[in-house]
Amino acid sequence: MLPQEQINLYIAEQPEWQRKMLVRLRQLIHSVDEDITEAWKWNSPHFEHDGIMIGLHGFKSFVSVWFHKGALLKDTHKLFDKPEKDEDKGIRKVKFHEGDAINEKAFMDLVKQAVKVNQSGAKLGDAKPARKALLVPPELENCLKKDEEAWGNWEKFNYTHKKEYVEWIVDAKQDETRKRRIAQALEMIREGVGKQDKHKV
Question: 91: domain range?
């Protein structure tokens, strides 16, 4: 059986309000790009464009739309549900309950983005959360800036190397310990070695 026929049968078997919802969602998805194709996966309708993109599923009390690379999309209209803890990190879902209206413009915008993401070949790994900005203790920064060689090396260090030094200094309980660690750090940074590299020697 062709995917289209399986999807037709699947939609026909749903309660009336879900049938109407699924038919409209299907129309909206296709209206975004004529190259979107249908597939039957995991016992539910799916839509592809340069790879899997969207899935539809009728549950007991709602219709769910799965955006397989939802984590890479900008949900400006806040259509996505909060991801569940055990959920695939990339998937984002839009849920429709009986009586809900579809924000068609916002929904189609997500579909357009999903097409672009697949066309670009972007992987879900590209959606890693941004790293927290590293807060360098002012005393360390001042010492580094006064020492041209140390500052040059510090600027070349990667995030992890910098973080190791910052955490080591911040962890010092006593003022004296902190000052001593800053002096030691300065010496090591001037030599161009990371905090952990010193232990490997």
Answer: 3-127
- Let me know: does 178 contact 185? Beta carbons within 8 Å: no
User: Around Cβ 29, how many Cβ atoms within 10 Å?
Assistant: 24
Tokens of residue 153, six digits? 């090396």
> Are both 92 and 150 inside the same structural domain?
no
* Farthest-apart Cα atoms in the chain, separation: 77
pLDDT digits (tens, 9 = 90+) for 56-103: 999 989 999 999 999 899 988 899 987 665 455 688 999 999 999 999
For residue 42, give every residue at least 6 positions away whose Cβ sits within 8 Å of its Cβ, in sequence order, or none: 55
Report which secondary-structure segment, H or E, holds 3.
Answer: helix 3-12
Residues 86 and 171 both lie in one domain = no
Nearest CA to 58 out of 11, 105, 106 is that of: 11
Q: How far apart are CA 67 and CA 73, in angstroms?
A: 9
* CATH number, domain with residue 86: 3.90.1150.200
